[in-house]
Amino acid sequence: MKINLKSMKMMNKRMILRYLVENGPTSRMELSRFTKLTPSTIGRIISELSEKALVEEIGYSDKYQIGRKPVNVAVTKKFVSSVVFNVGVEQTTIAIGFFDRSIKEIKRFSTGSLKSFISTVNLSLEDVEKRYPLNHELTSIVFAFPGIVNAKTATVIYAPNLNWRNLNLRDVVKYRYRIIADNEANLSVLAESISSEDAKKSDNTFFLYVSQGIGGGAMINHQILRGSGFAGAEVGHTVVEAQSNIKCHCGNYGCLERYASLVLPVIEYEKNGRILDGKTYPEKFKTLAEFYAKGDKVAIDALEGFIHYLSIGLINIINTFNPEIIIIGGGFNKIWKYFGKSLYQRISDRAMPGVIDNMTFRDTHFDEIEAPVAGANALAIDVMINNLD
Fold first, then answer.
1. Same domain, 177 and 311
2. pLDDT for residue 378
3. Segments forming the whole domain that contains residue 71
4. Which residues pair with 220 in a beta bridge?
5. Is 268 found in the same domain as 229?
6. Domain boundary residue among 28, 54, 75?
7. Taking the alpha carbons of 200, 201, 202, 208 in that order, is the dihedral positive or negative?
8. What is the mean pLDDT of residues 90-98?
9. Which is nearest to 171 in space by CA: 159, 163, 181, 162?
10. For residues 151 and 227, what is the distance between their CA atoms, to the nearest angstrom?
11. What's this model's pTM, rounded to 2 decimal places?
12. In the chain, what are the helix, strand and coil shares in percent, each to the nearest 5?
């Protein structure tokens, strides 16, 4: 069989870049040991990647105590790998990501109407382009959305809580960078799968994204489950009250997100004139959770329905996907910390024997940065490496 040397060389380049992204600064000797390529081949590839400003030398390795220390190489931070828009119902976060997976949040703005959102996106990109080193060939603009997103065409099919439909981002974002879009929960489970040791080892991981709405991201055999219509793992729109007269934004009745999002307990607490600190529902929910932890009876009563229906949602996830790990995050990243004991008890009462014995439940590891932002940058890096020529 004839070997395509050009293809093999490109595969080796991609392998080296992925290793450097995942493992950080590494010597040529370590790269040779990992890839099984000869030192001379490693040297040539590193030189070519350096000429393209994809890698750079950053100092000496501390792994060797005897003899001359080898020089480490690392992926560069000379250009931005992604400009990320993490779109929420109330506000949108803008961040930039780099090739080494580091993230810098730039600003937040009110999501608003579709027209004002698109205008703010384009104006923000104009500002980002002036302030940061973007690369027309390598930088991607990535959108994380709450809703159904066609990841192939970067089209928002339907975002129920925003009531946006058939929004092709490549048509409305007037910049010559690669445009990528995906569901916020899909990007969150991707972020966990590449950065958390337990999720890295897990064949099946589920991310339950709880905010003003509820979404789900399922990683099955290390692949994101998107579904034939890109609605895979949309657990927020599974029905938990069959006789409900409460209409969801999706048009159905009795959906999980109408009972177990961060919105309902805040409304319940504030209905008699009480006011929680915070400008957004996630901020107000954080205050409510702190009251709950202190034993505030009104807070406990306001959160009872939330905990009850969230436990039902988790049981449905367990019985449908049977994951090894269920991670909870979104608008408030400490749901398991505050409510895990009560949730686990209710789950245990409903679960089939033995099903949850070896299952892990936890909050997301992401706190300083938003999980979808980290996932968006990781996706941009993967697309960039796959498209190298």
1. no
2. 97
3. 5-75
4. 204, 223
5. yes
6. 75
7. negative
8. 97
9. 181
10. 11
11. 0.93
12. 40, 25, 35
